[in-house]
Design a protein that fits this description.
Elements (H helix, E strand, L loop, with lengths): L1 H14 L2 E6 L6 E7 L1 H25 L9 H40 L26 H11 L11 H10 L8 E5 L9 E6 L4 E3 L4 E9 L3 E7 L4 E11 L6 E2 L4 E5 L10 E7 L2 E3 L8
Antiparallel strand pairs: 1-2, 3-4, 4-11, 5-10, 6-7, 6-9, 7-8, 8-10, 8-11, 11-12
């Protein structure tokens, strides 16, 4: 039973108060005292540590105190840059997967003898660039003045005989079925025709040739330029999607893209131009629309 008595004495001793006093060094008179027990000291220490932990946690959670720690900001910047790079990679992978799925679906539809469908671009599609207007350069203005003037590069001095011979030598396919709303008129700056066609309708090449340009711009949407024989160039503007690449060989009537759809209530008409020997010609003289 001695060990029980030992434990009992120790337990009561843990809660027994001790007197801590402060004495004057000169006359040894008591100036201050306090009664404490080991239990009260332990409780005070735990309470102090708990309050310190809560204060530290609050500072970390609700204040930018970590930004002032050496090395922390560098690590945070690295994490942020890594997150941005991962988001860009995921977005690129998603667009590639969408293009592959659209391609496979169109191939399956073509094999079944049906018309391929156009991929619809959402308003948040990252393939759409910022619509920022580019101001013309002085060289562009000078070239425009030469083309619209009376010089050797003027657009007005075309030979009717050369156009007639070219028209008799070739047979061109209509790029799309629709109604011509604006006709060829050099005086008005209309170098081709505008056609009102169904949204997302198929756009076909008018003749065999090679793609020399496939790009996108804020004003003309997707634009495709094809070089044909006899110095003939066909230009297709305001497409919602291009299915060809630069340098690709195209056959007459082959699908090259899709007509634009209405965007924010605005409908952009399909524009088609024909150029012969560096000068625009009237497409209606060569194609039955």
């Amino acid at each position: 039973m001695k060990w029980l008595k030992y434990i009992h004495d120790r337990w009561h001793g843990f809660f027994r108060k001790r007197r801590f006093n402060m004495l004057n060094a000169t006359d040894l008179s008591e100036e201050w005292h306090v009664h404490l027990s080991p239990a009260s000291i332990l409780a005070g220490t735990v309470a102090f540590l708990l309050v310190l932990f809560i204060i530290t946690l609050s500072l970390v959670a609700y204040t930018p105190v970590l930004e002032f720690l050496p090395g922390y900001r560098t690590e945070a910047d690295r994490s942020r840059e890594s997150l941005i790079q991962n988001i860009i990679r995921l977005d690129s992978m998603q667009r590639v997967m969408n293009d592959m799925m659209t391609y496979n679906e169109n191939i399956a539809l073509i094999m079944e003898g049906r018309t391929p469908v156009a991929r619809v671009l959402g308003p948040t599609d990252s393939t759409r660039g910022a619509k920022v207007l580019v101001m013309p350069s002085p060289e562009d203005s000078l070239l425009r003045a030469q083309m619209e003037g009376d010089g050797p590069y003027a657009l007005s001095g075309q030979s009717a005989g050369s156009r007639r011979r070219l028209r008799e030598a070739i047979e061109l396919t209509a790029p799309v079925e629709g109604i011509i709303t604006d006709r060829f008129d050099l005086k008005k700056g209309c170098f081709g025709v505008k056609i009102a066609a169904a949204a997302a309708d198929r756009i076909a090449a008018v003749d065999n040739g090679t793609v020399v340009q496939s790009s996108w711009s804020p004003d003309n949407g997707c634009t495709i330029v094809i070089q044909h024989a006899r110095n003939l160039i066909s230009i297709y503007k305001n497409l919602s999607q291009s299915l060809v690449a630069i340098g690709q060989t195209i056959r007459s009537g082959e699908l090259i893209g899709y007509n634009a759809e209405a965007e924010n209530g605005e409908v952009k008409l399909f524009e088609f131009e024909l150029w012969n020997n560096g000068k625009p010609v009237d497409p209606e003289e060569y194609i039955v629309f």
